[in-house]
Specification:
Blueprint (H helix, E strand, L loop, with lengths): L2 H33 L5 E5 L2 E5 L20
Length: 72
């Protein structure tokens, strides 16, 4: 075997492993989204979907927001 054939096989193996990992993550993520629904509801606010979980009553109102790393 030549070095080119070995490198070609190695590149093909790496690509295959990456594709299998992507598929595994996508399938697992979709499965988890179906199995573990977040509490609350989705509300349309000016064209944006907002997840709201409301509980309790009275005053003061406490609002907590987390920012996704994808929004940075």
């Amino acid at each position: 075997m030549t070095i080119g054939a070995l490198l070609g096989g190695l590149v093909a193996l790496v690509v295959l492993v990456v594709l299998v990992g992507i598929a595994y993550q996508a399938i697992g993520g979709a499965r988890d989204n179906r199995r573990f629904r977040p509490p609350g509801q989705m509300v349309d606010v000016g064209g944006y979907s907002l997840h709201i979980h409301s509980m309790g009553e009275g005053s003061p109102t406490v609002f907590s927001s987390s920012r996704s790393a994808a929004l940075l």
